[in-house]
Specification:
This protein is mostly helical. It is 76% helix and 0% strand. It has twelve helices and no strands.
Length: 316
Amino acid sequence: MFFSSLESGIGYNIVLWFQSWRTDFISSAFMPFNYLINEVTFLLILPLVYWCIHKNAGKRLMQTVLFSFLVNVWFKTFLGRPRPYQVAVPGKPKIIPALPALDSYGIPSGHTQGSVVLFGFLAGEVKRKGFTILMVLLMILTAVSRLVHGVHYPQDIIFGALLGILVLIVYPPIYRAGSRFLSNFILPAQAVLSLLLFAGLIYLYKLFISDTHSFQSYVSLAAVYSFGLFGFSLESRYIRFSTKGGLIIRLLRFTAGIILTFGIYIGLKILFGFFKAPEDSFLSFTLRSLRYGTIGLWVSAGAPALFVKLRLSKRE
């Protein structure tokens, strides 16, 4: 009842207000902020930080962002609320999105939450006033762009921002405690614990959510997150690559790594496509888990091992 009243009342009116002064020029001006937070952007930024700038910060950033999106998808599906253009209010104009209509749920806003986590994390690492102001500005513009384009209610934005702030506060101690806990076990045991973590995340979804609307996305995130943690353990024990090097070496390292990352991403999609598994089948679940788990292992341990082998990185 609470969300319904917002979706047809003040929340709807606010989105209508943004739509009333939106022009093609304004829509185009805000368009880049919609693409700051998407799958491809994170596939580029997260490995860049981890492979080429600061390894430990990259590890923490990768796991924080993945955890944040797991939380977002879980709440989005659990609440199951519509987007503004999916609601018709008698006597009021229809909301027309300036972006291709999405069939996913609205609250909380993934773009807003993702921008708060990404830019908030970077601001916390750099700790410079000018940079922090820029990061906050990017958060605000990303959030406003979702209202300008008519794809989110203000309550979606607020909830997404609050979740992002909560993740930045709560997750770092969880990550540190989890890393210390894993380090007490031999590598095979760590592999088993990563599998158990993956199974636990899937169980948490199934326990509270019957809607399978976003299950595939959730599985993908859970697999990258869980197997990535195991990959970081492999890297710490056996690889220990260094992010140091000249600009050319770092560019070569990133280029080689990202080309192979996309190659694995696309190649496994094509390979597993030959199985023609129905989307809701156990085989489809297994193949998706393997595909995204492989990506997590590759980015966290496979690529660093290759960098050392090719002498694009030295050992620490």
